[in-house]
Amino acid sequence: MAKKFQLSQKAKSSLHYWRNSKNSETMCAQEKSKETVEWDLSRNNLVGGLKPTLRKAIFKRFCVVIIFSIAFAYIEAAVVVYLRAIFHPDGFTFPLNFAGTIFPKPILLTEIGREAATIVLIFTGAWLIGRNPQQRFAFFLTIFAIWDIFYYVWLKVLLDWPASIMDWDILFLIPTTWASPVMAPLLISLTLLLFAIIILYRDSCARPLRTGRLDWFIFALAGLIVVVSFCVAGLYSTEPDYSSYFYWPLFAFGQILALVVFLKCLRKSK
Asked: In the Cβ-directed half-sphere of 15, how many Cα atoms lie within 13 Å?
């Protein structure tokens, strides 16, 4: 009898545990889906002309992204301050002069890995903050643009460099050295930020940008053209006439091509 009672108590305890477990799972699922449901409802409210809570939600996320990007830019600038103090103690100027400067291979590989990790962090942040593919793409552009712009702002604060936006800089090391006047990456960042704002605004109004595979191909081609203009200049960054190897027409063509395809997508999205 005592044995049956113990078995009964164990059964009741197991049943109680199972019920609590199911209740906890249900509550977690409800909490997990609450924000998504509110997001969908706010989108419907926008379509119906009611309170635009979706727009407010996107604006809040946009503000958070800006704060993150500015802080991230400071980290990037701080690393460059250290690198210049170590490898360019007499000042960072073009053409680059590596005479007497030793770059250990582990340090070069570490720097290349850091740059790759930077892109991964930007992509990951955009993926986490965005709610759909267009938002994630727009937030990626936002983080990249704000990070790049404030990188130069922080360098100006910390090193009083660049003296002007026409000063040259090493931009990237993957797959080879990128170089150009500071003005070039700033122009790109401002363009990308404009694209991001328009995409997010349209998404907040439940009118996402309509794009096709051809649009994405041309946009990627435009980006590749710009990258080539940087890489060509980077190959000659140690030459006395280094500035003549940055082809502004090639760079401008890439920029204009990106603007044209974006305007085309806007036009067919009305």
From this structure: 6
Vertex 18 angle, CA 13 and 22, to 5° = 150
Q: Is the peptide bond before 104 cis (omega within 30 degrees of 0)?
A: no
Bridge pairing between strands 178-181 and 168-172: antiparallel
Phi then psi for 207, rounded to 5 degrees? -130, 70
Q: What is the pTM of this model?
A: 0.80
Region of 100 on the Ramachandran plot (φ > 0 left; ψ -120 to 50 alpha; else beta): left
Alpha-carbon distance 78 to 232, whole Å?
27
- Predicted confidence at residue 45, as pLDDT, reads 46
DSSP state string for 23-41: HHHHHHHHHHHHHHHHHHH
Q: Tokens 């720097």 correspond to what residue?
A: 111
Residue-wise pLDDT tens digits, 239-265: 999 999 999 999 999 999 999 999 999
Q: Tell me the one-letter amino acid at 67.
A: I
Q: Is 243 exposed, middle or buried (0-12, 13-18, 19+ CB in 10 A)?
A: middle
What separation, in Å, do the N-terminal and C-terminal C-alpha atoms of the chain show? Answer: 78
| Percent of the residues in the chain that have a pLDDT greater than 90, as a whole number | 63
Q: How many other β-carbons are positioned within 10 Å of the β-carbon of residue 232?
A: 18
